[in-house]
DNA sequence: CAGTGGTCTAGACCACTGC
DNA sequence: CAGTGGTCTAGACCACTGT
């Protein structure tokens, strides 16, 4: 299984080894779940030092192509099943029968929720800007972590002006049928539209732990702002999603 | 500048050094553009071997917090100016005066375009599925790279059924005023809506090179499908964006 | 127990920057 | 020229897996 490298290519050895392994993965020579040759084997295959082959494999891990388990080996990553977040997932018709938005997202399968924190706090600069209130205004914060099939799927933090949330089930762990948006509409604020700003970046160490992210997996960050029929902001939701588990699907108008 | 580590924490030394440096960045002790202490200084600061401090800095590079220049040093990354891609950027009103969608995206500043390839080819399985045609059907492919202020911003590949593109300016490098969508409407296919599927992942080596991406920067991939008033697909555009240069902005209906 | 990947060290040569 | 980060080597100990 000796593999030859090209000394005249000018590329560092670890890049050439990574390219060789990547090509084996992309060509199907190494399939999903297959074990890579061990470090000692790669050392022999390519005639390189251990740190060098480790650097090559580290590159593939950073690209999200490979993961490693201590004591077992390194393996070709399979893409996990992907959830589609549809642009109309907050449409009223999905709430009428008491189904909250997240179970719509999950295609009807019931997700479990780990409520991290529910309570009042002072709005940060960022939250105040989103809500259109002054910094330090009292707001309700609801931080949750959602699981599907035992896997952590998303971290969500909602902010609602305290004047709107006070005395309602929004301040409880269980917001009741239809979720937080049903409670907001009961308060006389009919929802008209949402804006959603999407960014992507590498996770912080905290996020990587909370979402059980493999190395090399970016996260989506969604900032969703809910407006009522007066075009006032009634809620903001800051969501972190594992990018390898979601496709975000939107519809754009042509006129 | 000696920094003490906690041997009882159980964390590997390189993680502790990375945590220490990350904390210095987040606290503002190290500002945007500031130079990190050199490897030799970090070796002295933390009493670790060179590979160990390099592993710590590599972690911060993978997180996108730091970049390095050979011969100069390692620096705290500043976020580049961000472009906002609005959900209505393909609305007809933005085309009426001969302005193509991309200059709308860029806030009116004129981007430059590097046309990589324009010509007919057979639809791949993926392209055929998007266009709703049989695999191998003749389609026009237009691959471009867009620059703003000299920086590569996005890679875009459009596919149009050949029956629609043949004999029009779409098959030329310059598609003329209003761009490709104006040409499609001239062919009698009024555009009604677009769908856009958003994913994020780490770039391939090719993409990282073409977009001049710093390590640790994920990319967005947009698959945008254009439908005419008969709900037939008239074009598909596969776009790769540097995720640190864009905010994608959408509007979601509440009913 | 042998084999795996994870961490760490000490030392070397290189290409590049800036003085 | 000295100092920087980039690459590479040889060797060590560790924690964990599977038999």
Question: What distinguishing features does this structure have?
Answer:
two-stranded antiparallel sheet; 255 residues; alpha+beta; homodimer; 2 domains; Arc Repressor Mutant, subunit A; Chorismate lyase; six-stranded antiparallel β-sheet
Please explain how this structure is put together.
2 copies of one chain form a homodimer. Chain A is an alpha+beta fold and 255 residues long. Chain A has 2 domains: 13-76, Arc Repressor Mutant, subunit A, CATH 1.10.10.10; 82-249, Chorismate lyase-like (Chorismate lyase). The first copy, chain A, has 8 helices and 10 strands. In chain A, the strands form 3 sheets. In chain A, strands 4-5-6-9-8-7 form a 6-stranded antiparallel sheet. In chain A, helix 1 (13-26) packs across helix 3 and helix 2 (39-46) crosses helix 3. The model of chain A has no long low-confidence stretch (mean pLDDT 89). The A-B interface holds A 19, 51, 62-64, 87-93, 191-202, 204-205, 215-216, 218-220, 224, 226, 243-244, 246-255 and B 19, 51, 62-64, 87-93, 191-202, 204-205, 215-216, 218-220, 224, 226, 243-244, 246-255. The first copy, chain A, binds a DNA duplex (19 and 19 nucleotides) through helix 3.
């Amino acid at each position: 299984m000796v593999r030859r490298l090209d000394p005249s290519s000018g590329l560092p050895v670890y890049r050439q080894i990574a390219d060789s392994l990547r090509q084996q993965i992309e060509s199907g020579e190494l399939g999903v779940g297959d074990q890579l040759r061990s470090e000692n084997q790669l050392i022999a295959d390519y005639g390189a030092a251990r740190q060098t082959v480790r650097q090559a494999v580290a590159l593939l891990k950073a690209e999200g192509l490979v993961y490693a388990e201590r004591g077992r080996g390194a393996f070709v990553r399979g893409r996990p099943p992907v959830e589609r977040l549809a642009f109309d997932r907050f449409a009223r018709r999905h709430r009428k029968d008491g189904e909250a938005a997240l179970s719509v997202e999950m295609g009807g399968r019931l997700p479990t929720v780990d409520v991290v924190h529910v309570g009042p706090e002072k709005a940060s600069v960022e939250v105040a800007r989103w809500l259109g209130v002054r910094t330090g205004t009292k707001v309700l914060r609801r931080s949750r972590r959602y699981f599907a099939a035992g896997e952590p799927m998303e971290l969500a933090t909602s902010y609602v002006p305290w004047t709107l949330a006070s005395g309602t089930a929004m301040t409880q762990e269980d917001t009741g049928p239809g979720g937080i948006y049903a409670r907001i509409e009961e308060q006389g604020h009919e929802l008209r539209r949402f804006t959603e700003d999407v960014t992507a970046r590498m996770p912080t160490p905290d996020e990587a732990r909370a979402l059980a992210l493999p190395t090399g997996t970016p996260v989506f960050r969604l900032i969703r702002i809910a407006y009522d029929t007066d075009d006032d902001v009634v809620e903001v939701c800051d969501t972190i999603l594992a990018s390898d588990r979601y496709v975000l699907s939107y519809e754009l108008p042509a006129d």
